[in-house]
Design goal:
Two copies of one chain form a homodimer. Helix content of chain A is 66%, strand content 9%. With 164 residues, chain A is mostly helical. In chain A, strands 1-3-2 form a three-stranded antiparallel β-sheet. The first copy, chain A, binds a DNA duplex (28 and 28 nucleotides) through helix 3.
Chain lengths: 164, 164
DNA sequence: GCTAGCATGTAAACGGTTACATGATTAG
DNA sequence: CTAATCATGTAACCGTTTACATGCTAGC
């Protein structure tokens, strides 16, 4: 997911690591903070794979910035990942929201809608039996109540987008 | 999170690994499947730490079962984790729902309510600015719409439980 | 005879967390 | 002069994923 966020934000404009971290944090850092120890190694790996290029630039203040830019291969990889999300990127809400955050980068409406339809189908399958557990435990009942409300809101939004 | 689920289900009754996997799957496997490669090593680690004991039992069919049981130390660790969830167990919905699934194991109402109040305070802080991003991107708008609906439903449930 | 389900594990590769490490600039 | 913010990284540890590996029993 970190990789998808990096590719996604860099598809908008070149950024240095610190700024990238700020954007990722704004997008999903409220739930799970991004640590430098995961971000910088991820940048290094993506650069080694040829998906990113980096060039040094004098910092606005402080240390030298490494400005990161998507390569053609990087952009192709981003589009491929958005077009063909894995099963857990469809089923795991956290992962799906990351896909959704960058879905507008996919140029074809049909491709974008195909992804939304996969998510809708997953939700309509009812979390694979998750929703009709009968629970005596009041806290698990609460979990189900909340999950049902979220699912309902999301299905309504997905249908409204798919129906244009 | 896996560890919390293992301790939580074993607090209800002794189980063997295969049955434990089935229960974890029912609880949260719809989003993220549990793999044997994470479950069995986790069981081994917990046994080495003295939180679990295992004894062999003839299988109902097939291979020998390793029946797992919580030790006193294991039960104490479960209660400690439920009483004092980490910050990310409060902020990350997936992790919080795992805590919630076993919260009824905490004997004191005051302890359980303290956990719920921490979650409510986090949600009322508005996802730390997450909710008032103005987004032109329609998919990110959708994300916000869904997130707001979920948050609202969860806050309503939390308040109803806390108000008795 | 074969497939599905029961049942438990190991090994390699990969990625994330935490702590450590450095150093400049700006505002109070 | 000191804290906050800007800015980038490394190293050890730990856990997860994926693939591999085995073997029994019941039903078709």
């Amino acid at each position: 997911m970190l990789v998808l966020s990096i590719l996604g934000f860099l598809a908008e404009e070149p950024l240095h690591g610190y700024e990238l971290r700020a954007r990722i944090h704004q997008l999903s850092g409220h739930a799970r903070p991004v640590s430098d120890g995961s971000l910088y190694p991820a940048i290094t790996r993506l650069t080694e794979k040829g998906l990113l290029s980096r060039r040094a630039e004098p910092g606005s203040s402080a240390a030298q910035r490494q400005v990161l830019e998507l390569t053609e291969a990087g952009r192709a990889e981003l589009l491929r990942r958005l077009r063909e999300p894995t099963d857990t990127e469809i089923s795991d809400s956290t992962q799906f929201f990351t896909v959704l955050a960058f879905l507008s980068k996919l140029p074809e409406l049909a491709d974008r809608n195909a992804v939304l339809r996969r998510r809708l189908a997953f939700l309509e399958a009812g979390g694979r039996g998750f929703f009709h557990q009968e629970q005596a435990d009041p806290y698990r009942q609460g979990m189900l109540t909340i999950a049902k409300a979220s699912s309902k809101a999301e299905r309504a939004w997905l249908r409204s987008v798919l129906d244009n």
